[in-house]
Every structure is written in structure tokens, then in C-alpha cells.
Amino acid sequence: MLPPDLPLPLALLIVSLAVSAIVALRYFAASGVFAWATSRARPGLYAGKGRQIAREIRWSLLSAAIYGTPAGIVLWGWQHHGWTRITADFAALPWWYHPLSVLAYLFVQDTCFYWSHRWMHRPKWFRIAHAVHHESRPPTAWTAMSFHPIEALTGAVVVPALVFLVPIHVAMLALVLTIATVMGVTNHMGWEVFPRRLVHSWLGDWLITASHHERHHEEYRCNFGLYFRLWDRLCGTDRGLSRRIVAEAGHARGAALS
Asked: Are 159 and 88 in contact (CB under 8 A)?
């Protein structure tokens, strides 16, 4: 806990730096685990990508600071001033509302990401900002936060803004952040970590996994969503799954059964 008489700007700076460090550690932990899983499940997939991965880590650390700053302000406001709609009391909200709040946060995130992502693919903004993310060809487990600061800012403000508007239990908020972390990494791994029976099911037709997002990195002008394929389907930008990943997943399954 910080001293209560600490000047507000200094307190916010300290908390923001601390949360930025936590975001960076979360990035290293999640990307590191899935990079290790890649080395076991797809040996050699990242061979020769040392310079690319080093660049991805540098951009990601800058993104961690951009994500950590508004998150730190939210944390300070929640703990010391009650500025937000976050609660630690599970009974303060109806039991049915808790899963609904998670879906609401994910849907708003997905919506903001879809439209900002499409905007980032306009030639001017692609050159200025989004090209940084697409320098990863193909992406790796370290690509998830490899953003230009402008792009990082468009994603960093969504959840901090939501907590001032939409009530949520702190555990449900932690679940939202966990889903964001896991999906961000697994969608960029270059291979499909989820079972084929899920990816090719009715549910899989509406969820984004590596098989879907990889096609965006292959063709650029399609598959803009974050978690769900809803906006891609409504707007005619859904081009289906990456043929390479689908074929490799089928080959891996066949090898495992033989």
C-alpha cells in the first residue's frame, strides 16, 4: 500500500509502472509457455525467427507500458476512491449477471477491436501503425502484443473505460483478462492448439482461433475479429480458415493415430 499522503500524480505514476511490469510479466509467462508448447508440438516451426521474435518482444514491452498505465489508474481509483463499477462482493450482483458481464465485456472488446482493426488496414494507418504487427510473417507466440503505440492505445483503453460503466466482479474481470491473454497468444501461434472437433463444430464456426486469425495474416483484408466471427460474418469479411493450418492439423492428427 502506498502512503495516503502521497501526491496523486506520483501515486498514479508508481501504480502505473507497477501494473505495466505485471502486464509485461504476464506477456512473458503466457507467450513463453505457448512458445515452449510450440517447440514440443511443432518442432522447428520458429526456426530462424530469432530476430523477428526479438523485435516482437521489444514492441510488446512498449505495449505493456501503454496497457499498464490506464489499468494502473483504474486500480488506484477502485481501491482508494471507488471510482469504478468493480466490486469484490459476489452477492452485490445477481448470480446470473456474473457470466453475462464476462460476455458483455468480451463482446464490447471484440466490437471495438473489429472496427479499429479494419480502420488500421486503411493504407495510411496501416503504414503509420498496423504494419508493425504485420511485420511478423508468419506470427509466433510472441506476436500477440507486438503493436505500434497507436494500435496499442486503441486496445488499452477499452476495458478501463468499461469498468466505469458496466458493473463487474473482480474475479469476472480477471477471467476477462485471462481470456484476452490466452486468445491473443494462441491465435498467433501459427498452429491450432484447440481440438479439431471444436474448431470444426457449430461453436467453432462463431469463435476465432489460430485457424481463423492466421488467414488474416495471410491475406490481410479479411478475418478482422478478436474473439467472435459475428462482425466478420455480418460485414462480409469472413474468409474462413487458414488452409495451411487446417491441413497441418489434419496431418498431425493422422500421424498421431497411425
From this structure: no
